[in-house]
Design a protein that fits this description.
- This protein is of the alpha+beta class.
- The chain folds into 2 domains: 34 residues, no CATH class; 81 residues, Alpha-Beta Plaits (2-Layer Sandwich), CATH 3.30.70.330.
- It has 3 helices and 7 strands, in the order E-E-E-H-E-E-H-E-E-H.
- This is DUF4283 domain-containing protein.
- It holds the Pfam family DUF4283.
């Protein structure tokens, strides 16, 4: 049995003081904000069956030159120790801190780790050799990306 749900909200437009708002609409009237149609007793779709396409040989993965980490072999993995910051802040702080000749790309790889790929080898060498680096009075750990990501 489908019905309508109607939501009402108090019209105190000035934060609840009860005074008349400046647009003259009245502060004590109720307004209708939304109507949502109830769908009643519709059946829920069953969950989809998960299929492993690689195991069933319906899909394959082809690696470039037979190495899956080739694009990131010269990248660094960085982590700010003792503090977590969001992507935009990390990128802007690293840009100001390192002052590189060209630039770099940064990728959030989870758990407050970032993969950094440099445009030139000279910039990468500068970052690795001129440390230690600090952001917000916390040390920035830098490691070769392949050392961390390669299976042992």
């Amino acid at each position: 049995m489908g019905g309508y749900f109607v939501f009402f909200a108090s019209g105190m437009g000035d934060g609840g003081s009860g005074k008349e708002p400046p647009d003259g609409r009245g502060g004590d009237k109720q307004r209708v904000y939304s109507k949502i149609r109830s769908w009643g007793n519709k059946a829920v779709a069953p969950p989809r069956q998960q299929v492993d396409l690689i195991q069933q040989k319906l899909a394959t993965i082809v690696y470039e030159d037979d190495t899956r980490l080739k694009p990131m072999e010269d990248a660094l993995v960085v982590k700010l120790l003792g503090k977590s910051i969001v992507y935009n802040v990390m990128k802007s702080r690293l840009t100001r801190l390192w002052r590189l000749t060209l630039g770099f790309d940064i990728l959030d790889i989870g758990n407050n780790f970032y993969m950094v790929k440099f445009d030139t080898e000279m910039d990468r060498t500068k970052v690795m050799e001129e440390g230690p680096w600090m952001i917000f009075d916390h040390y920035l750990s830098t490691k070769n990306g392949l050392q961390i990501l390669s299976p042992q």
